[in-house]
Fold this sequence. Notes:
Elements: H1 2-36, H2 39-58, E1 62-63, E2 68-73, E3 79-84, E4 94-95, E5 114-117, H3 124-132, E6 136-140, H4 146-157, E7 162-166, E8 174-178, E9 181-184, H5 192-200
Parallel strand pairs: 1-4, 5-7, 6-7
Antiparallel strand pairs: 2-3, 3-9, 6-8, 8-9
Amino acid sequence: MGSAKKNTSAARKARIEEMRRAEQSRERRSRILTITASTVVVAALVAGTVFLVQSQSDDEPAADAKTSGSFVTGSDGVKTWKGTLGRTHVTKSVAYPMEPPVGGDHHQAWMNCNGDVYTKALNNVNAVHSLEHGAVWVTYNSKAPKADVDALAAKVKKTPYTLMSPDDKQADPIMLTAWGHQRTVTGASDPNIDTFFEKYVQGEQTPEPGAACTGGLSK
């Protein structure tokens, strides 16, 4: 039993380290491409991204017509979305049927999710794109104890393909979300956090496994 747990832990650490090396390699390639690109092209891309994000923020939320279904809660406490989740890139904000959203139509720009901790609420349409890339999203509201928030932030910072942000619209103090899956946890010491990370960080549910968690939006 003890040996099996050690092997599982070692395998998980090896998988996370492999993902971190892959992210670092992507970052190096991105820096090289950025340096060699012309200033005019870079400026145009940045301006275009800002325009799209601002436009999305100004528009009224649109219903995600392609998303349908409902949650089914398993014996392990994880809620799984049974139905369809849209995957179309949109420029407007989306009215998701759950908070935080577990998937659906989303913006073409993702939130950086290489262990990124945000202190302000995120645009759901960008965070959902991170979920599509296989990230786990940790969210908390004002009822979450500061000690738990700090401990969770430290954990996220050490784990590739994760991100964290406040969300005062959610029902429970601390929630974990992956594409199509979600659960509530009692605090930073809840063992279900490690279980959820192990299963859903770049897990089988990922629509685009191996897609980047860097090179997106940082705020």
